[in-house]
Known about the structure:
Blueprint: E1 2-5, E2 12-17, E3 23-27, H1 33-53, H2 61-75, H3 77-95, H4 105-115, H5 121-140, H6 165-174, H7 180-189, H8 193-197, E4 204-205, E5 210-213, E6 222-225, H9 228-236, E7 247-248, E8 251-252, H10 257-266, H11 275-287, H12 292-299, H13 317-332, H14 335-340
Antiparallel strand pairs: 1-2, 2-3, 4-5, 5-6, 7-8
Helix pairs in contact: 2-3, 2-5, 6-10, 7-9, 7-11, 11-12
Amino acid sequence: MQLYRRPGSPKWWATWYDRNGRRYRRSSGTKDRKLAEALVAKWAQEGILAEHFGKTPEVPFPEALLRYAKVQKRDHPRGFMRSTRYRLKHLQARFGKFNISEITLRVVQDYMDERLETVNLATAQKDVSILRAILNLAFREDHLARQPRFPRFKSVKGRERWLTRDEENRLLAAASRHLIPILRFAVDTGGRLSEILRLDWRQVDLKGGRVRFIETKNGENRTVRLCRRAVATLSGLGPQDSGPVFLFRGKPIKSVKTAFDKARLKAGLPDIRFHDLRHTFASRLVQGGVPLYDVMHLTGHKSLQMVQRYAHLAPDYQERAMQALDDIGHNLGTVEGHRAA
Protein backbone atom coordinates (compact mmCIF):
# COMPACT_ATOMS: atom_id res chain seq x y z
CA MET A 1 0.00 0.00 0.00
CA GLN A 2 1.24 3.47 -0.89
CA LEU A 3 -0.24 6.84 0.04
CA TYR A 4 0.49 9.95 -1.97
CA ARG A 5 -0.90 13.38 -2.83
CA ARG A 6 -1.69 14.48 -6.33
CA PRO A 7 -0.41 17.91 -7.43
CA GLY A 8 -2.85 20.60 -6.32
CA SER A 9 -4.87 18.24 -4.09
CA PRO A 10 -4.61 18.26 -0.27
CA LYS A 11 -6.27 14.84 0.03
CA TRP A 12 -4.49 11.52 0.28
CA TRP A 13 -4.67 9.04 -2.58
CA ALA A 14 -3.82 5.37 -2.28
CA THR A 15 -2.58 2.66 -4.58
CA TRP A 16 -2.43 -1.04 -3.75
CA TYR A 17 -2.50 -4.49 -5.37
CA ASP A 18 -4.72 -7.49 -4.71
CA ARG A 19 -3.45 -11.07 -4.61
CA ASN A 20 -3.83 -11.42 -8.36
CA GLY A 21 -1.63 -8.43 -9.00
CA ARG A 22 -4.47 -6.15 -10.01
CA ARG A 23 -3.69 -2.52 -9.22
CA TYR A 24 -6.16 -0.18 -7.50
CA ARG A 25 -6.02 3.60 -7.18
CA ARG A 26 -8.51 5.61 -5.20
CA SER A 27 -8.90 8.91 -3.37
CA SER A 28 -9.37 8.63 0.38
CA GLY A 29 -11.33 11.87 0.40
CA THR A 30 -9.50 13.04 3.51
CA LYS A 31 -6.47 15.15 4.47
CA ASP A 32 -5.86 12.98 7.57
CA ARG A 33 -3.13 10.41 6.79
CA LYS A 34 -4.12 7.99 9.57
CA LEU A 35 -7.74 8.03 8.48
CA ALA A 36 -6.63 7.47 4.90
CA GLU A 37 -4.56 4.44 5.96
CA ALA A 38 -7.55 2.99 7.82
CA LEU A 39 -9.82 3.47 4.80
CA VAL A 40 -7.40 1.78 2.45
CA ALA A 41 -7.01 -1.16 4.82
CA LYS A 42 -10.82 -1.48 4.90
CA TRP A 43 -11.03 -1.41 1.10
CA ALA A 44 -8.36 -4.04 0.78
CA GLN A 45 -10.18 -6.28 3.30
CA GLU A 46 -13.43 -5.87 1.39
CA GLY A 47 -11.60 -6.92 -1.75
CA ILE A 48 -10.50 -10.15 -0.07
CA LEU A 49 -14.07 -10.85 1.06
CA ALA A 50 -15.36 -10.27 -2.45
CA GLU A 51 -12.71 -12.55 -3.93
CA HIS A 52 -13.15 -15.49 -1.56
CA PHE A 53 -16.76 -15.24 -0.41
CA GLY A 54 -18.47 -13.45 -3.27
CA LYS A 55 -19.41 -10.56 -1.01
CA THR A 56 -19.68 -7.20 -2.75
CA PRO A 57 -18.06 -4.40 -0.72
CA GLU A 58 -20.42 -1.77 0.67
CA VAL A 59 -20.39 1.52 -1.23
CA PRO A 60 -21.77 4.70 0.36
CA PHE A 61 -24.46 6.35 -1.71
CA PRO A 62 -22.56 9.69 -1.92
CA GLU A 63 -19.67 7.86 -3.58
CA ALA A 64 -21.96 6.29 -6.20
CA LEU A 65 -23.69 9.64 -6.74
CA LEU A 66 -20.36 11.38 -7.32
CA ARG A 67 -19.39 8.77 -9.89
CA TYR A 68 -22.70 9.27 -11.72
CA ALA A 69 -22.30 13.05 -11.56
CA LYS A 70 -18.86 12.88 -13.19
CA VAL A 71 -20.22 10.76 -16.05
CA GLN A 72 -23.18 13.09 -16.62
CA LYS A 73 -21.08 16.24 -16.47
CA ARG A 74 -18.69 14.74 -19.01
CA ASP A 75 -21.28 13.34 -21.43
CA HIS A 76 -24.17 15.83 -21.00
CA PRO A 77 -22.65 19.09 -19.70
CA ARG A 78 -25.55 21.36 -20.62
CA GLY A 79 -28.21 19.13 -19.13
CA PHE A 80 -26.08 18.60 -16.04
CA MET A 81 -25.70 22.32 -15.40
CA ARG A 82 -29.34 23.05 -16.22
CA SER A 83 -31.11 20.49 -14.04
CA THR A 84 -29.28 17.26 -13.14
CA ARG A 85 -26.98 18.78 -10.54
CA TYR A 86 -29.94 20.19 -8.58
CA ARG A 87 -31.67 16.82 -8.50
CA LEU A 88 -28.42 15.23 -7.34
CA LYS A 89 -28.19 17.70 -4.46
CA HIS A 90 -31.67 16.69 -3.36
CA LEU A 91 -30.84 12.97 -3.57
CA GLN A 92 -27.59 13.52 -1.68
CA ALA A 93 -29.51 15.18 1.16
CA ARG A 94 -32.11 12.40 1.22
CA PHE A 95 -29.90 9.30 0.85
CA GLY A 96 -26.52 10.60 2.02
CA LYS A 97 -26.41 8.24 5.01
CA PHE A 98 -27.31 5.11 3.02
CA ASN A 99 -25.12 2.49 1.47
CA ILE A 100 -26.31 1.69 -2.03
CA SER A 101 -27.22 -1.87 -1.03
CA GLU A 102 -29.69 -0.45 1.52
CA ILE A 103 -31.78 1.34 -1.13
CA THR A 104 -34.38 -1.38 -1.60
CA LEU A 105 -37.72 -1.42 -3.39
CA ARG A 106 -39.48 -0.53 -0.13
CA VAL A 107 -37.12 2.40 0.49
CA VAL A 108 -37.79 3.76 -2.99
CA GLN A 109 -41.56 3.37 -2.59
CA ASP A 110 -41.45 5.24 0.73
CA TYR A 111 -39.36 7.97 -0.90
CA MET A 112 -41.83 8.28 -3.78
CA ASP A 113 -44.78 8.65 -1.38
CA GLU A 114 -42.86 11.23 0.61
CA ARG A 115 -41.88 13.16 -2.52
CA LEU A 116 -45.43 13.31 -3.83
CA GLU A 117 -46.47 15.27 -0.76
CA THR A 118 -44.50 18.29 -1.99
CA VAL A 119 -44.09 17.95 -5.79
CA ASN A 120 -46.14 16.71 -8.75
CA LEU A 121 -45.91 13.23 -10.23
CA ALA A 122 -43.69 14.23 -13.16
CA THR A 123 -41.07 15.82 -10.88
CA ALA A 124 -41.09 12.84 -8.52
CA GLN A 125 -40.62 10.42 -11.40
CA LYS A 126 -37.65 12.39 -12.72
CA ASP A 127 -36.02 12.23 -9.28
CA VAL A 128 -36.62 8.48 -9.06
CA SER A 129 -35.29 7.94 -12.59
CA ILE A 130 -31.98 9.58 -11.62
CA LEU A 131 -31.82 7.48 -8.45
CA ARG A 132 -32.34 4.39 -10.62
CA ALA A 133 -29.61 5.54 -13.01
CA ILE A 134 -27.14 5.99 -10.14
CA LEU A 135 -27.76 2.47 -8.85
CA ASN A 136 -27.72 0.94 -12.34
CA LEU A 137 -24.31 2.49 -12.97
CA ALA A 138 -23.08 1.08 -9.67
CA PHE A 139 -24.39 -2.35 -10.70
CA ARG A 140 -22.65 -2.17 -14.10
CA GLU A 141 -19.41 -1.28 -12.33
CA ASP A 142 -19.77 -4.30 -9.98
CA HIS A 143 -20.54 -2.31 -6.84
CA LEU A 144 -23.95 -3.96 -6.43
CA ALA A 145 -24.54 -7.71 -6.35
CA ARG A 146 -27.83 -7.46 -8.27
CA GLN A 147 -29.64 -4.89 -10.36
CA PRO A 148 -31.99 -2.86 -8.12
CA ARG A 149 -35.75 -3.24 -8.39
CA PHE A 150 -37.88 -0.13 -8.77
CA PRO A 151 -41.66 0.28 -8.50
CA ARG A 152 -43.78 0.87 -11.58
CA PHE A 153 -45.53 4.19 -11.64
CA LYS A 154 -48.38 5.47 -13.73
CA SER A 155 -47.05 7.22 -16.81
CA VAL A 156 -47.44 10.98 -16.93
CA LYS A 157 -49.70 12.14 -19.73
CA GLY A 158 -47.86 14.37 -22.16
CA ARG A 159 -48.90 18.00 -22.27
CA GLU A 160 -51.26 18.72 -25.16
CA ARG A 161 -51.37 22.50 -25.50
CA TRP A 162 -50.66 24.42 -28.67
CA LEU A 163 -51.62 27.78 -30.06
CA THR A 164 -54.40 28.50 -32.48
CA ARG A 165 -53.70 31.09 -35.18
CA ASP A 166 -55.64 33.67 -33.19
CA GLU A 167 -53.68 32.90 -29.99
CA GLU A 168 -50.41 33.14 -31.88
CA ASN A 169 -51.37 36.55 -33.28
CA ARG A 170 -52.34 37.78 -29.82
CA LEU A 171 -49.05 36.58 -28.35
CA LEU A 172 -47.01 38.23 -31.11
CA ALA A 173 -48.94 41.48 -30.72
CA ALA A 174 -48.20 41.50 -26.98
CA ALA A 175 -44.51 40.56 -27.28
CA SER A 176 -41.59 42.95 -27.04
CA ARG A 177 -39.68 43.73 -30.22
CA HIS A 178 -36.71 41.44 -29.53
CA LEU A 179 -38.98 38.53 -28.54
CA ILE A 180 -41.14 38.48 -31.69
CA PRO A 181 -38.53 36.87 -34.01
CA ILE A 182 -37.84 34.18 -31.41
CA LEU A 183 -41.53 33.32 -31.06
CA ARG A 184 -42.05 33.14 -34.81
CA PHE A 185 -38.93 31.06 -35.29
CA ALA A 186 -40.00 28.62 -32.55
CA VAL A 187 -43.42 28.08 -34.14
CA ASP A 188 -41.91 27.71 -37.63
CA THR A 189 -39.06 25.31 -36.78
CA GLY A 190 -40.10 23.43 -33.63
CA GLY A 191 -36.79 24.33 -32.04
CA ARG A 192 -36.37 24.08 -28.29
CA LEU A 193 -35.64 27.37 -26.54
CA SER A 194 -32.08 26.28 -25.70
CA GLU A 195 -31.47 25.31 -29.35
CA ILE A 196 -32.81 28.62 -30.63
CA LEU A 197 -30.83 30.82 -28.25
CA ARG A 198 -27.63 28.91 -29.08
CA LEU A 199 -28.17 29.19 -32.83
CA ASP A 200 -25.15 30.71 -34.61
CA TRP A 201 -25.13 32.18 -38.11
CA ARG A 202 -22.66 29.46 -39.07
CA GLN A 203 -25.53 26.96 -38.71
CA VAL A 204 -27.84 29.03 -40.94
CA ASP A 205 -28.10 28.48 -44.70
CA LEU A 206 -30.58 31.05 -45.97
CA LYS A 207 -29.84 30.31 -49.62
CA GLY A 208 -30.57 26.62 -49.10
CA GLY A 209 -33.40 27.37 -46.65
CA ARG A 210 -32.02 25.30 -43.76
CA VAL A 211 -30.78 25.62 -40.18
CA ARG A 212 -28.82 23.08 -38.20
CA PHE A 213 -29.44 22.79 -34.48
CA ILE A 214 -26.35 21.41 -32.72
CA GLU A 215 -25.90 19.79 -29.31
CA THR A 216 -29.62 19.09 -29.04
CA LYS A 217 -31.33 17.44 -26.09
CA ASN A 218 -30.93 13.94 -27.54
CA GLY A 219 -27.23 14.56 -28.26
CA GLU A 220 -27.55 14.66 -32.05
CA ASN A 221 -27.45 17.52 -34.56
CA ARG A 222 -30.70 18.19 -36.42
CA THR A 223 -31.26 19.96 -39.73
CA VAL A 224 -34.63 21.64 -40.36
CA ARG A 225 -35.92 23.12 -43.60
CA LEU A 226 -37.22 26.67 -43.29
CA CYS A 227 -40.64 27.85 -44.35
CA ARG A 228 -40.95 31.24 -46.06
CA ARG A 229 -41.78 33.08 -42.83
CA ALA A 230 -38.77 31.57 -41.06
CA VAL A 231 -36.50 32.69 -43.91
CA ALA A 232 -38.00 36.17 -43.69
CA THR A 233 -37.51 36.22 -39.91
CA LEU A 234 -33.81 35.40 -40.19
CA SER A 235 -33.29 37.73 -43.15
CA GLY A 236 -34.77 40.56 -41.11
CA LEU A 237 -32.18 40.02 -38.40
CA GLY A 238 -29.33 40.80 -40.82
CA PRO A 239 -27.42 37.65 -41.80
CA GLN A 240 -23.82 37.48 -40.56
CA ASP A 241 -20.90 35.15 -41.24
CA SER A 242 -20.86 34.03 -37.61
CA GLY A 243 -22.08 34.92 -34.16
CA PRO A 244 -25.35 34.43 -32.23
CA VAL A 245 -28.49 34.93 -34.28
CA PHE A 246 -30.78 36.34 -31.60
CA LEU A 247 -29.52 39.47 -29.88
CA PHE A 248 -30.83 42.15 -27.55
CA ARG A 249 -29.01 45.48 -27.65
CA GLY A 250 -26.12 43.81 -29.42
CA LYS A 251 -25.64 41.03 -26.86
CA PRO A 252 -26.67 37.33 -27.04
CA ILE A 253 -30.02 36.61 -25.42
CA LYS A 254 -29.57 34.18 -22.55
CA SER A 255 -33.16 33.99 -21.30
CA VAL A 256 -36.62 35.12 -22.39
CA LYS A 257 -38.48 34.23 -19.19
CA THR A 258 -39.36 37.77 -18.14
CA ALA A 259 -40.29 38.95 -21.63
CA PHE A 260 -42.30 35.82 -22.38
CA ASP A 261 -44.21 35.95 -19.08
CA LYS A 262 -45.17 39.57 -19.75
CA ALA A 263 -46.30 38.75 -23.30
CA ARG A 264 -48.45 35.72 -22.41
CA LEU A 265 -50.18 37.54 -19.57
CA LYS A 266 -50.79 40.61 -21.70
CA ALA A 267 -52.20 38.38 -24.46
CA GLY A 268 -54.56 36.69 -22.00
CA LEU A 269 -52.76 33.32 -22.31
CA PRO A 270 -51.55 32.60 -18.76
CA ASP A 271 -51.41 28.82 -19.33
CA ILE A 272 -49.02 29.00 -22.29
CA ARG A 273 -45.41 27.87 -21.88
CA PHE A 274 -42.62 28.54 -24.34
CA HIS A 275 -42.34 24.81 -25.04
CA ASP A 276 -45.94 24.91 -26.31
CA LEU A 277 -44.63 26.71 -29.40
CA ARG A 278 -42.80 23.49 -30.24
CA HIS A 279 -46.07 21.58 -29.78
CA THR A 280 -47.71 24.11 -32.10
CA PHE A 281 -45.15 23.36 -34.81
CA ALA A 282 -45.74 19.60 -34.54
CA SER A 283 -49.53 19.84 -34.34
CA ARG A 284 -49.71 22.03 -37.44
CA LEU A 285 -47.57 19.60 -39.39
CA VAL A 286 -49.88 16.72 -38.51
CA GLN A 287 -52.96 18.79 -39.28
CA GLY A 288 -51.39 19.50 -42.67
CA GLY A 289 -51.11 15.79 -43.40
CA VAL A 290 -47.40 15.30 -42.65
CA PRO A 291 -46.81 11.66 -41.53
CA LEU A 292 -45.88 11.14 -37.88
CA TYR A 293 -42.57 9.54 -38.90
CA ASP A 294 -41.54 12.74 -40.67
CA VAL A 295 -42.73 14.86 -37.73
CA MET A 296 -40.57 12.72 -35.44
CA HIS A 297 -37.45 13.56 -37.44
CA LEU A 298 -38.29 17.24 -37.81
CA THR A 299 -38.74 17.64 -34.06
CA GLY A 300 -35.72 15.51 -33.20
CA HIS A 301 -37.56 12.86 -31.18
CA LYS A 302 -35.99 9.41 -31.10
CA SER A 303 -39.21 7.41 -31.10
CA LEU A 304 -42.73 7.64 -32.49
CA GLN A 305 -44.11 7.34 -28.98
CA MET A 306 -43.27 10.99 -28.32
CA VAL A 307 -45.31 12.22 -31.30
CA GLN A 308 -48.25 9.83 -30.93
CA ARG A 309 -50.06 12.52 -28.95
CA TYR A 310 -50.62 14.37 -32.24
CA ALA A 311 -52.03 11.37 -34.15
CA HIS A 312 -55.66 12.35 -33.63
CA LEU A 313 -55.02 15.67 -35.36
CA ALA A 314 -54.34 14.06 -38.73
CA PRO A 315 -57.04 15.24 -41.16
CA ASP A 316 -59.69 12.64 -41.85
CA TYR A 317 -57.42 9.80 -40.72
CA GLN A 318 -60.37 7.63 -39.71
CA GLU A 319 -62.09 8.27 -43.01
CA ARG A 320 -58.95 7.27 -44.92
CA ALA A 321 -58.65 4.11 -42.84
CA MET A 322 -62.25 3.13 -43.50
CA GLN A 323 -61.85 3.88 -47.19
CA ALA A 324 -58.89 1.51 -47.28
CA LEU A 325 -61.04 -1.23 -45.75
CA ASP A 326 -63.83 -0.48 -48.21
CA ASP A 327 -61.37 -0.75 -51.10
CA ILE A 328 -60.18 -4.13 -49.83
CA GLY A 329 -63.80 -5.19 -49.41
CA HIS A 330 -64.57 -4.32 -53.02
CA ASN A 331 -61.65 -6.45 -54.16
CA LEU A 332 -62.74 -9.40 -52.03
CA GLY A 333 -66.41 -9.17 -52.79
CA THR A 334 -69.39 -7.97 -50.77
CA VAL A 335 -70.83 -9.54 -47.64
CA GLU A 336 -74.01 -10.40 -49.52
CA GLY A 337 -71.96 -12.08 -52.22
CA HIS A 338 -70.22 -14.30 -49.67
CA ARG A 339 -73.51 -15.22 -48.03
CA ALA A 340 -74.98 -16.19 -51.36
CA ALA A 341 -71.99 -18.34 -52.06
